[in-house]
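Handout, section B. The chain below has 188 residues.
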Amino acid sequence: MSDWGSFATLTAVVAALWAYGSGGEEKRSNFRSWAAGRMSAFAPAARRLTWGIIFGALTVAAGAIVISSGFAILEFLSRTGPISRGEIFNLVLNCFNAVMYLAGGAGCMALLFEFPERKSDEGSHVLSSGKDECIELLLQDVGDTEALLQQLRSTGITIHLNRAAPGNARFSVRAPEPFRQAVKSLST
């Protein structure tokens, strides 16, 4: 603690923790319900915002390391005196840092901007596939999967069942050509 600002912040945090701890169970439960009510409106965006902050901070940190390594490499290249082994080691280390942190920062930047929001689709879906392609279906809350398997097999569809979790099933489907044509005509 080097200044009064950080001391005052630490004192405020300790005082808030003390007030929370000595308030009694009723006041603590009231505070928890108040905080839960405030956070429920923020909850849908909280995960995306948290990941965005993490990847943004990693990108900024990687950028700072790349810039400082670039300055060290530039300083080495512009020197005129004799070169020692330690300076060559530092040059190799700075080149490695610049390349690796540039790749990591670019990856974080890509994840920061290419992290799509997942939307759940509900209802019936019409799937089509090209010739000799497999269609994978993930059905959730399937009651009787065996009856569905028998019904689909009777139409000439080859099915491999993998039970992903209780109540869920993953089907790998290979359909004959007439079935694919019927599905295409339904989807248009």
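Note. Residues 25-77 form the longest helix (53 residues). Compare this with the example in section A.
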